[in-house]
Amino acid sequence: MHYYPEIMQLDVESLRTFAAVLDLGSMTAAADALGVSQSAVSWKIKRLEERVGRDLLVREGRTLSPTRDGRELLDYGRTIIDTHDEAVARLSSTELVGKVRLGTTEEASAKCMNEVCGRFNRIHPATVLDFHVDRSATLETMIDRNQLEVAVIQLLPHQVKSRDGILWHDKLLWVSSTEWTHDEGEVPLITFGEDGFYRPLAESALNEAGVRHRVAFSGPSTASVLTAVRAGIGVALLSSISVTDDVIEWPRAAGLGAPPTVVNVARVSKGATSDVAAALVANLRAELGEVPADA
Fold first, then answer.
1. pLDDT band at residue 3 using 50, 70 and 90 as cut-offs
2. Would you tell me which of 124, 259, 269, 292 could form a disulfide with 96, CB atoms 3.0–4.6 Å apart?
């Protein structure tokens, strides 16, 4: 064992942020995935570059790529992160035993849901998570029928129930293609279908503003909706978590009312909550709960 207190110190969370930026291609996407502000991501990257004394990132168009030094640090960084997480999981492991059925929206999955559940399993190795991804309306029905024990769902503020644990609030954005912004005439609307969360909000906003519209495309997933937007088929109302750098905020949205704030909650089924479900909800609130804007 060698002790060199005077040499450079690399903190794990800055390395984790650096890896997320490169994995996801932008600081905005990394901030959403890590559940922190973009300024926090920028600050951690700047601090990391100052500590190593090297430039680690270079911008190529809309994407951030590693420099030669950045690629080398990334390899070491992944090893450090994995070793750190493995040690934490081993030392934090419990005797909790059981199975919990968890439902989540696609938006929640985009906010590191898989990573959170993976860490939960490592901390509680004797537990089993039965993971199901679907739309909020479907998940609400499933949890009311006790087909799920915990569900992460999207709600409007007035829909939050006493048994819901608030995780984070989300901003909705109107988006369009960079080339086809549909500035005039009837608006072609891209949605997730009649039972999607966003369609009634989008149609209500357009109706209140007196804007003629039609549903031009209905897709089953965020990926399909964004593909249709990029192709110029129409415009869409989406969670800010889902918006990528290759679409723009729809210019014509300035004439509409501000979209409502969306609340993402962890809802438990009615009746007695199992120890595993209670631990999972506590973990979700600890890892996905909102942090101060500049944290």
1. low
2. 124
pTM here is 0.67
**CATH number of 124's domain:** 3.40.190.10
Return all residues near 128 (Cβ < 8 A) that are at least 6 apart. Answer: 98, 99, 100
Helix (H, G, I), strand (E, B) or coil at 183: coil
Question: Does 1 map to a domain?
Answer: no
Do residues 236 and 194 both lie within one domain?
yes
Question: Are residues 223 and 86 part of one domain?
Answer: no
Domain count, the chain: 3
Residue 123 has a CB neighbour count (10 Å cut-off) of: 18
Q: Enter the tokens of residue 173.
A: 């954005």
Round to whole Å and give the CA distance between 52 and 16: 15
- The CATH number assigned to the domain holding 73 equals 1.10.10.10
Answer for the pair 19, 74: CB distance below 8 angstroms, yes or no: yes
Assign 67 a pLDDT band (cuts: 50, 70, 90): very high
Spatial separation of the C-alpha atoms in residues 166 and 207, rounded to whole Å: 30
- The candidate with the shortest Cα–Cα distance to 132, out of 96, 98, 105, 110, is 105
What SS3 string covers 26-90?
Answer: CHHHHHHHHCCCHHHHHHHHHHHHHHHCCCCEEEECCEEEECHHHHHHHHHHHHHHHHHHHHHHH
Among all chains, which residue has been given the structure tokens 């509409």?
A: 256
Contacts of 113 (CB under 8 A, 6+ apart): 104, 152, 288
Q: What is the pLDDT of residue 232?
A: 95
For every residue of 112-158, DSSP letters joined together read IIHHHHHHHHHHSTTEEEEEEE--HHHHHHHHHTTS-SEEEEEE-GG
Q: What is the pLDDT at residue 295?
A: 35
